[in-house]
C-alpha cells in the first residue's frame, strides 16, 4: 500500500489542502488556496459585510488600524463557521488598533484562533455575536502544544454575546494568558462567563482590568417572552456573570493539572449570574462575578467588588469533593479602585489624600481665616515626667566659662 512520506508535515498538509474534496467540489483556484498557507502578511484595510476572507494556516499575520464590520462565517467546511472576520490556525497573529463591530459566526463572532499564539493590543470588539461560543473571540489551543500564549492589552469588549459560554471571549488550552488594562462591559452569555470563559489554562493573569454589567441571559437565542428562568443542564454549572474559570479533565485521570488565576487591581461591578444560577456541591453563592470549578487556585490582590458574599462560587462535580480550592485573598475591598453609575458609566476615583484649604476673598496683604485648633491633651511619658517645676536655680559643677576648649570638645564628641 502506498503511503505518503511523513518527513515533511507542512508539505503534506499543503498537498492535502489542494487535493481536498472541498477544493475540488467548489473548483477553488489553487493560487487562492495557497495564498492562505504559510504566508507572512501585514493587513491594513477595512472589510465590511462579506463572508470571512481572512483565513490563514502556518502563517505570521499582523493586522493593524483596520475595521471589520458586519462580516459573517457560515457554510460547509471544517472551520467555515468559526471567526466572522478572521480565522487563524497554527499561526502567529498580531492584532493592533483594530475595530470589530457586529460580526457574526457560529463560534468566535469576530475572531477564531486555533493552536496559534495571539496578541491583541488597543483594539475594540463591539456588538459581535456567536450562536455557540465566544461572542467576540475564541482562542482555542490544544493539550499537546504546551507553549501557546495569549496576550490582550488595553482593549475594550462591549456588548458582545453568545448562545453558550464566553460572552466576549473563550480562552482554552493556552499555557499563559495575560490580560492587562482591558474593559469588559455589557457582554452576555447563556450558561457561563458573561465576559470570559477560561478553561484548562495553567497560568492566567488579569491586571488593572474592569468587568462591568456583564451577565447571563436566557433570551439570547430564543425569545422566551417574559420567562427569565432557564433550566440549567445537569452536566454543567450555570454561573459566573463575569468569569467562568476552571479545568476539565478525565475524572478517571490522576493528573495533577491545575489552573491558576491571578487577579490584581481589577474591578468586578454589577455583574449578574441571572435568576437561575446552578452549581453542584454546597455553594450558596450565585457566582455573580466568578464561578470556579474543577481543580483551580486563585490569588486576588487589591481587587474590588461591591458584594463579596454573592460574588464568587466554587462548584464541585460528583467526584470532586475532595479536591482543594486554593484561595488567597489580599486587600479585597480595602480600597475602591473604580465605581460604576446605574447606567454603567465608569468613573475612576483617583483621589489620594487630598488637602482641603479654606478659601478667602481677601487681598494678598490681608490674613486669611484659620480654623481653630482642636483640643489636645498632654500625656505624660516616662521621659517628660523627668522635668518638674522647681524653685531652685541651676547649679553648674564648674564654671561654664572656664575650660571652653573642653566644652567645645564635648559638643564635637556629642555630634
From TrEMBL:
<keyword id="KW-0732">Signal</keyword>
<keyword id="KW-0472">Membrane</keyword>
<dbReference type="Pfam" id="PF02415">
    <property type="entry name" value="Chlam_PMP"/>
</dbReference>
<dbReference type="InterPro" id="IPR003368">
    <property type="entry name" value="POMP_repeat"/>
</dbReference>
<dbReference type="GO" id="GO:0005576">
    <property type="term" value="C:extracellular region"/>
</dbReference>
<keyword id="KW-0964">Secreted</keyword>
<dbReference type="InterPro" id="IPR011050">
    <property type="entry name" value="Pectin_lyase_fold/virulence"/>
</dbReference>
<protein>
    <recommendedName>
        <fullName>Polymorphic outer membrane protein</fullName>
    </recommendedName>
</protein>
<keyword id="KW-0998">Cell outer membrane</keyword>
Amino acid at each position: 500500500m502506498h503511503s505518503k512520506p511523513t518527513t515533511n508535515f507542512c508539505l503534506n498538509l499543503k498537498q492535502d489542502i489542494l487535493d481536498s474534496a472541498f477544493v475540488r467540489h467548489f473548483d477553488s483556484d489553487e493560487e487562492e488556496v495557497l495564498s492562505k498557507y504559510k504566508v507572512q502578511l501585514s493587513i491594513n484595510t477595512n472589510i465590511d459585510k462579506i463572508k470571512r476572507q481572512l483565513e490563514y494556516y502556518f502563517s505570521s499575520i499582523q493586522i493593524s488600524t483596520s475595521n471589520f464590520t458586519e462580516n459573517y462565517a457560515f457554510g460547509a467546511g471544517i472551520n467555515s463557521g468559526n471567526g466572522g472576520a478572521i480565522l487563524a490556525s497554527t499561526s502567529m497573529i498580531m492584532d493592533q488598533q483594530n475595530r470589530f463591530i457586529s460580526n457574526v459566526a457560529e463560534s468566535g463572532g469576530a475572531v477564531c484562533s486555533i493552536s496559534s499564539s495571539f496578541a491583541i493590543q488597543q483594539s475594540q470588539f463591539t456588538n459581535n455575536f456567536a450562536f455557540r461560543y465566544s461572542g467576540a473571540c475564541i482562542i482555542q489551543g490544544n493539550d499537546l502544544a504546551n507553549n501557546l500564549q495569549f496576550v490582550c492589552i488595553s482593549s475594550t469588549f462591549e456588548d458582545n454575546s453568545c448562545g453558550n459560554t464566553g460572552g466576549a471571549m473563550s480562552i482554552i488550552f493556552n499555557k499563559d494568558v495575560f490580560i492587562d488594562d482591558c474593559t469588559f462591559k455589557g457582554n452576555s452569555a447563556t450558561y457561563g462567563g458573561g465576559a470570559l470563559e477560561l478553561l484548562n489554562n495553567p497560568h492566567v493573569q488579569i491586571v488593572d482590568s474592569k468587568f462591568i454589567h456583564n451577565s447571563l441571559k436566557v433570551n439570547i437565542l430564543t425569545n422566551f417572552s417574559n420567562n427569565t428562568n432557564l433550566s440549567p443542564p445537569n452536566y454543567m454549572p450555570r454561573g459566573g456573570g463575569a468569569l467562568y474559570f476552571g479545568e476539565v479533565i478525565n475524572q478517571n485521570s490522576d493528573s495533577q493539572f491545575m489552573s491558576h488565576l491571578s487577579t490584581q487591581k481589577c474591578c468586578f461591578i454589577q455583574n449578574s449570574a441571572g435568576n437561575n444560577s446552578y452549581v453542584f456541591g454546597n455553594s450558596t453563592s450565585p457566582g455573580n462575578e466568578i464561578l470556579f470549578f474543577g481543580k483551580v487556585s486563585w490569588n486576588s490582590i487589591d481587587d474590588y467588588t461591591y458584594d463579596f458574599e454573592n460574588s464568587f462560587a466554587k462548584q464541585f462535580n460528583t467526584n470532586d469533593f475532595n479536591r482543594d480550592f486554593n484561595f488567597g485573598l489580599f486587600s479585597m475591598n480595602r480600597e475602591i479602585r473604580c465605581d460604576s453609575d446605574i447606567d454603567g458609566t465608569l468613573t475612576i476615583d483617583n483621589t489620594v489624600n487630598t488637602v482641603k484649604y479654606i478659601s478667602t476673598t481677601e487681598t494678598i496683604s490681608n490674613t486669611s481665616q484659620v480654623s481653630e485648633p482642636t483640643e489636645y491633651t498632654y500625656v505624660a511619658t516616662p521621659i517628660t515626667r523627668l522635668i518638674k517645676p522647681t524653685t531652685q536655680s541651676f547649679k553648674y559643677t564648674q564654671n561654664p566659662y572656664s575650660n571652653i576648649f573642653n566644652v567645645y570638645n564635648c559638643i564635637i564628641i556629642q555630634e
